[in-house]
Write a structure and sequence with these properties.
This is NAD(P)H oxidoreductase YdeQ. This protein is an alpha/beta fold and 184 residues long. It has eight helices and six strands, in the order βααβααβαβααββα. α2 packs across α8.
């Protein structure tokens, strides 16, 4: 049995940021990415890496192999992720590599989501505008985690992302830092 002296661990963490306008339109995602970078985390901005170029699946797979915990950070767009992250999932998590016969390269790793939503927690409920919780809407990511053999972490959610003031963003950033370094 392990004796944990603290609730923080030293896993190699990769945060894959997928926001097409990270530096011009998303204070919340920008703040989260900066927080990740300050916490000894590798931050990989998909839109900066692949603006107008083809996704390099072999490079992306190597990044995954080099890390123990993978966090996908993105804004909720039409109840899912931006298109480049969807393409990343399709091109990188391939049969024979991530799943299926011989597809065990990610087994034992941790997989989490850090998402921002423009709406409130209340709007993401059976009684709210969106009819479902964000956890329910993001179930395809949980199923993907199961298929590729990774442990799915609790989802880190920032609601009302566009309305938060600087102090509220700082509080969310502190919570994100704890999320990135804590045992789940």
């Amino acid at each position: 049995m392990m004796n944990h002296q603290s609730d923080h661990i030293k896993l190699k963490t990769l945060v894959i940021v997928a926001h097409p306008a990270l530096h011009t339109s998303s204070r919340a995602n920008q703040k989260l990415a900066q927080t990740a970078a300050r916490n000894a985390t590798t931050v990989h901005d998909l839109y900066a890496a692949y603006s107008g170029t083809t996704l390099n699946a072999a490079h992306e797979q190597q990044l995954l192999l080099e890390h123990d915990r993978i966090i996908l950070q993105f804004p909720i767009w039409w109840y899912s992720c931006p298109s480049l992250l969807k393409q990343w999932l399709d091109d990188v998590l391939t049969y024979g590599w991530a799943y299926g016969e011989g597809g065990n390269k990610l087994h034992g790793k941790e997989w989490g989501l850090a998402v921002t939503a423009g709406g409130s927690n209340e709007t993401y409920s059976p009684q709210g505008y969106n009819l479902y919780s964000l956890e329910q809407l993001l179930r395809p990511f949980e199923v993907t985690a199961s298929i590729i053999g990774v442990r799915f972490l609790p989802i880190f959610i920032v609601f009302n992302a566009m309305q938060l003031n600087e102090q509220e963003l700082d509080i969310k950033a502190e919570k994100y830092a704890a999320y990135l370094t804590s045992i789940h």
